[in-house]
Each structure stands twice: as C-alpha cells, then as structure tokens.
Write a structure and sequence with these properties.
With 153 residues, this protein is mainly β. It folds into two domains: 3-96, Aspartate carbamoyltransferase regulatory subunit, N-terminal domain (Alpha-Beta Plaits, 2-Layer Sandwich); 102-152, SH3 type barrels (Roll), CATH 2.30.30.20. It contains three helices and eleven strands; from the N terminus they run αβαββαββββββββ. It has helices at residues 3-6, 25-31, 68-77; strands at residues 14-21, 42-50, 54-62, 82-87, 90-96, 102-104, 107-108, 125-130, 135-138, 144-145, 151-152. A five-stranded antiparallel sheet has the order 2-3-1-4-5, with helices on one face. The protein has a four-stranded antiparallel sheet with strand order 6-8-9-10, with no helix packed on it. A hairpin with a 4-residue loop joins strand 8 (125-130) and strand 9 (135-138). It is globular and about 45 Å long. The relative contact order is 0.17. Bound molecules: zinc ion (ZN). Zinc ion binds next to loops.
C-alpha cells in the first residue's frame, strides 16, 4: 500500500476516487453531490504527492457507489481518475472513469440560444468528439463546449 493511501482512514463499504487531477477534488465533490448530509464518512485529501513531481486529489466516501451519471461526470472533470469499490475493507473492483460516446442530460449547453436552454424542455445531448482531450459538442447547436465551464443540470 502506498503511503498516500495510509493518510486517510480506511472505509468499510464505499468508493475511493483516486488520481483526481490536482485541484479538481472539490469540483468532483460538488458534481457528485457528495456533501456528507447523510452522515456518511467522507475523507478528502488534496494535493497528495503522486510520483516525483505531481500531485493528486483523493476522495473516499463511505456507503456510496457511483451511478453511471456520476461516472460520466467524473470522466469529464477528472479523466485520469480511478474508481475503487470497497466492500468489507477490501478492494473488490477498480476501474477508470472512461468517457462514453455521448453524454445525455447531465450537463447544460453553454450557448444561451441553444434549444436545450429554451422553454421547450429538451434534454441536452453532447457528443464526445475527442476522448483524449475531453472535448464535448452539443448535438443541437454544434457548439464545442469548454469542459471547465460546464454547468450541471
Ligand atoms: Zn447547444
């Protein structure tokens, strides 16, 4: 086990989101609506040394397992993140936050004139046109979206 893993208390059941890009941890918390409101143990470690010159953020959440929408949000905000599922203190599953080909509903198009922002109640559909660079494009208005400024629905 790495030293960085030991810095925070182990959890019995839940999810450890590791390798979040430095500085994105709080954004991930917000996007996943993790606020501790249900009394679950949450541990957040920011700027954890990772490798020689790099840093990362880590989030441990007890009693939470990410739904597909959560995984998609995570893939957009922190593409290098890994999702570790813990059961009975053991790591039972480890996966990358990988981007799907399209992301429906969860983000808002940044174009105020887009039909998805009108009163028509049309849900957003965004095509992932570059998975490496995390580039999303609105299917309705074709705007290429800045992933750092996306708002959540
Ligand atoms: Zn649009």
């Amino acid at each position: 086990m790495q030293e960085s893993e030991l810095m925070v208390r182990r959890i019995k059941e839940g999810t450890v989101i590791d390798h979040i890009d430095e500085g994105k941890g709080l954004q991930v918390l917000g996007a996943l609506q993790i606020d501790g409101g249900d009394g679950s143990l949450i541990t957040i470690a920011l700027n954890v040394p990772s490798g020689k010159f790099k840093k990362k953020d880590i989030i441990k959440v007890e009693n939470k397992f990410l739904a597909d929408d959560d995984t998609n949000k995570l893939a957009v905000i922190a593409p290098k993140a890994t999702i570790n599922i813990i059961k009975n203190y053991k790591l039972v599953e480890k996966r990358r936050a990988s981007l799907p080909n399209e992301i429906d509903r969860i983000f808002r198009c940044s174009n105020p004139d887009c039909i998805t922002n009108s009163s028509e109640h049309i849900e957003s559909v965004m095509d992932v046109i570059d998975k490496e660079g995390t580039v999303l494009k609105c299917r309705y208005c074709s705007r290429v979206l800045d992933v750092n400024q996306l708002k959540y629905n």
